[in-house]
Every structure is written in C-alpha cells, then in structure tokens.
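Sequence of C2H2-type domain-containing protein (Neogobius melanostomus).
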Amino acid sequence: MLEIRQKTRQLGWLTKKIKTKKAWFANTWSICLEFDYGCLLFVPRIWRNGKLPVKSHWFGTTSSRKSLGCDLCGEGFPNKNQLNIHRRIHEGKEIHTCKYCGKDLISLSQLKIHENSHTRDKVKRSVVCDQCGKAFTSSSKLQRHAVIHTGARPYTCKECGKDFNQSGNLLKHKRIHTGEKRFKCEQCDKAFARNEDLQKHTINHSGVWPFKCAECGKGFVSSTRLTRHTRTHTGERPYTCDVCGNVYFSSCTLKEHMRVHTGEKSFKCDQCGKAFQYKRHLQRHGFIHTGTKPYICKDCGKGYYLQGDLTVHMRKHTGEKPFKCDQCDMAFAVTSQLKRHTFLHTGKKPFTCQLCGYGCFKPLDLRTHMRRHTGERPYSCGQCGKRFRSTTTLRQHKYTHTNIKGVTCEHCGKGFSQRKLLKQHQKKHRLCLENCHITVYAA
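Predicted 3D structure, token representation.
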C-alpha cells in the first residue's frame, strides 16, 4: 500500500500540472501506474470549470488485462461494462448495437448518446470527401470512408476469408459463423443476427415503414436505404468505376460491378460447386436443385425464384415504370433498361471486344460475342444435340421441335420460331413510300 500511496502522490502532482497547463492536458488522456503485481489506470474524464475529476480502475496484471471472466462460457473481458454486455447475451436480454461502428451498448439512452458522436452537426465537420461530398469531423474518419470509393477491403474474416471495407461490417458478418442471434422480436420471439433484419421483421407486425420516398411512396427501414433509393428518381450517381467510367447509385452496386472486371465469383453452390458473381444468382441457382419457384404471380401464375424477379414481373401487369430518362422522358420498369437506354444518347458502348473492337451495352452480350472467337457453344439442345452460344438462341431453337411460333409479325400476324426469321420477313414485308411518309405492308 505504501508503494501505491507514493505513486498516487506522484499522480496528484501530475494532475496539478495538468490543471495549470491545459495544452499539456489535451495530449494526456490516461496515466498508468505499474507495479510488480498489476497496474492502476487513471483516466481523466471531463474538464469542468478548471476541475479535473479522475476515474481509476484496477486492471489486474499488466501481462493479462482480460481478468474478468464470464462464469458461463469463460470468455475474458478487460472491464465490468463489457462483461455485463456479454452476460446479457446469455440472459437473452436485448443489446443495442451502434449502426455506424458496431459497438454494443446496454441501454437505448447510451446508444443514443454514442450514435450522436457519429452524427454531430455538420457545421463542425470540416473534412469533406471529394467523391461524394460527405463531411467528417476528422481526417481519420474520412480515410475510413474513402475505402468505400476505392473498393479496398482491409478487414478479412478468418473463418471464410471474405473481405470487408469496414470493421463494423466484419463484426456483423462474424455472427453468421457463430450462429449468434442477439436481436429478438418482442412480439413473436423470433431472433435475428442483424438489427436491420429485426427492423424489417417488425414491419410485418406494425405495417409501418419508418422512412418513405416522397416521390413513389416506397418504404424503407433506414434513412441510408431511402437516400440510395431517391437517387433512382434524381439520377444522382456519385460512385464511379475507375476501369470503365460507369457511374452507380450506391457503393454496393459499384462493388458488384467491379466483379465484371475482376472476374471474382465468391458465391459457391454447396451442392454442385458452381460459382457466381452475385448472391442473388446463387439463390436463383439453388432452386434448380430443389425444383421450386416460391414466388408466384397472382395474376398469371408464373413462378420466380426471387422476390425481386416477381416485383419486376408485376410491373408488366400494373404498367409501372418508375425509372425515367432525364433526356427524353422515356420510362422503364428496371434500372438496367434505363442504363442501356442512356447509352443511346451518349453513343457510348462500355464493353468492347479487344480482338475485333465490337462494342455492346452489357457484359453478358460481350461474353456471348467472345464465343464467336473461341468457338465455345456451352448450351446444347436436349432433343437433337445441336449446340448454341447463348440461352436465347437455344430457347428459340427449341421452338423448331415443338412447332410453337415464339415471335409474331405485328403487321400480318404470321408466326416464326426464331427472331432472325421474323426480321428477314419484315424486310420483305415492308415497303416504305418516302414521298408521302406512308408505310404500306404488302400481302
């Protein structure tokens, strides 16, 4: 005890120096007094009216500071606060997680105070991202944010090797491996690994979306998703691909697009080993093994593997076209159609064959074109064995076996099994009288 008294007297002298020299205090956030059997950490809390309250905490031995262990699972923690948060998991109590950094807190009031540190008044934010205009309180926070635009993923999961651009995202991902579902619904006791999944689920009970688009009325669980959605109406695309110059509404869509250039296929089917660039493609593929199409159109009975595919299909019945071209007022049912349409105005074909210079609007079209050079024909007819470069030409070929006319001339009603036959027919069928601007269709 004598040694502790001597050390704390030394600390008292230091705190007097701190009181008189505020600039020195600004760089001094903690004082650790070390002993043979442990260390005593003194942390200055808040400078109020020249007074310096000092908070002390005993950490145990210097070599092993995780001295507080959970009596249920044995995991160690450096302080009681983190241990108490951990115990709530075993007790089934709710834990409040910061949506910005993934930090866990016990109460909603603590969460609110903590999240306010992320969302302070923008007047205090002097560091601005030159890519998207978002403001930050420090250059270190700007650097963490800049990773979104560069596509770098410095945080790697040790279990599966998946990379992430933010530490908070890695923290959320780890719960997939541990099976931990800390977010429980108070109404039906269903549990979720992520808070945003719980928020989506609670809407099933309440029927109320916390954030709604003023343009189309679509609901969202977070302001971030609403902001991303409103860009489909405004046309704002702050994220640019460094390789081909394409612009995107969100960092997620840019990240997905980059796989076109890198060829990355990180989503593998655990039944047949086939890999996919996108998670939704893996989900759609998975139903091939089960043979089910869980999403059925109520109007025509057509089935789909994904909810998103059914949503797009329903627009054929409703006539809804939410994506409008800002140059000619043409509207489209899906964003990909709008994107391809805008290239007609710019004349730009972002995907080019390096062998012959052929340009196209979609990466799928480029892959199909490349098979002309390689001779690859991966799709075969089950009846006659004939092989094709694309699923479209295979599908059209199948009509020759069934006598189904898949495409019809809009002028005379004649049916054809292939689109190229229809085009040949229309060239012979159409006679244009340019002088009187009348088109006559011969019998």
